[in-house]
Predict the structure.
Amino acid sequence: MKKQRWIIKIGSALLTQNGAGLDEVRIKDWCAQMANLRSNDIEVILVSSGAVAVGMSHLDWKTRPEQMAKLQAAAAIGQTKLVQFYEQCFNAHQMHSAQILLTHDDLANRTRYLNAKAALEALLELGIIPIINENDTVVTDEIRFGDNDTLGALVANLMVADRLIILTDQLGLFNKDPRSNPDATLIEQANASDSDIALMATGGGALGRGGMITKIRAAKLAARSGANTNIASGMEKDVIVRLFKGEKLGTLLLADQEPINARKQWIAGHLQTKGTLMVDSGAHQAIKNHKSVLPVGIISSSGSFLRGEVVSLADESGKIFGRGLSNYSATDLQQIIGQPTAQISKTLGYACDNEIIHCDNLVYL
Ligand SMILES: Nc1ncnc2c1ncn2[C@@H]1O[C@H](COP(=O)(O)OP(=O)(O)O)[C@@H](O)[C@H]1O
Ligand SMILES: N[C@@H](CCC(=O)OP(=O)(O)O)C(=O)O
C-alpha cells in the first residue's frame, strides 16, 4: 500500500523565537514529532525557512539588510547552522536528514524537476528526512520563490503529497490579522479554492515574508495535486502528532477540486514565465472550456521565449488566468498573431502545430 506523504513547512518567525536565534527546544520537539510520524509509516519532507534569520542573529544584525549580497551571506551562514541542528535532533531518534536547496529555475526546467523528484524519492525510500529550503545564495528577486509557503506547495505537487502542514506563529487563518485585530476569529475549515479566504489574509511579520497571503496561495497550489493543507501553530503542544491523530487544530483548507495530472502541475508551478500572451474574450472563454489557444484569439505577445517554453495567458485587462507550453517562439509568434490557423505555414514557411498552445499543455488557474 502506498504510504502517506506529508510536507511540513516551518517558518522563520517560529524557528527563531522572532529573531532571537534558533529555538532549540521547539526544534527538538518538532523533530521528535516528525520521527513519530515516520514510525507510523508516514513519509515526511521538511521545508524549513530560517537561513536568513539564523544568519542575522549569528551576525547580531537587528534589521534585515536591503543589499542582496548581505542577505545571501546571512543565508549561507544560517543554513549550515540550521541543518546541523536538525541533523543532531534527528540523530537522537536514530534518523538522518539530507539538505536539498532549490531555486525556481530548478523546478521550471523539466529535467531538473524530474531529477529533484527522483532524488527525493530515493531519500524517502532510505528513510531519510529531506530538509528543503530555497537556495538563497544563488537567487535574486526575479527567480526567488518569494517565500517558503509556495516552495512547500510546489514540493507537495512534485512529490504528490497527501498533506501540507504549514506551521506558523498564529493558531491558523483568522478572518483578519490577529496581530492587529484582537477580535479576529479563527477559520477552522474552508475550501482551498474559496476566493473569500484570500481577502482575509495580509502579509507577514518582520522575519517571515509571506504572511497569510502566501499560505492561502500555497493551499490552492497544493490542492492541484490533491493535498489538503493545515495551517496551525507550531507553538501548540504536539501539534504534528495531534494532527496525525485526526484532531482538529488550526485551519484546514481542503483540496476541493479534481487533481490535475503531473505534467499540468509542472506547468501550473511556473510562477514566473518568460512571456505573456494576451487573448481576447472569445479565446478566454474557449480556453476556460478546455480548448486550445489559436493565433486568431491572441491580441499581443510580450517577453522572449522559445518553442516549448511555458508562457502566461492574460485576459484583456492584463489579469493572468492560465499557463501553457508555447508551440512557437516569441519571434515567430509575433508574425502570426491574429491570423487564421491556415495562414501559419504561409507566413512562417512552416507550421509545427495548428495550436499556439495545445489544450493538453494548458492550465486554467
Ligand atoms: N488573516 C490572518 N490570519 C492569521 N495571520 C495573519 C492574517 N493576516 C496576516 N497574518 C499574519 O501572518 C503572519 C504569519 O506569516 P509570516 O510572518 O510570514 O510567518 P512564517 O514565518 O511562519 O511564514 C502572522 O503572524 C500574522 O501577523
Ligand atoms: N529561504 C528563506 C526563507 C524566507 C522566508 O521568509 O520564509 P517564511 O518564513 O516561510 O515566510 C530563509 O531560509 O531565510
About this structure: Residues 11-14, 49, 168-170, 173-174, 176-179, 200-202, 204-205, 208-212 surround adenosine-5'-diphosphate (ligand 1) (CB under 6 Å).
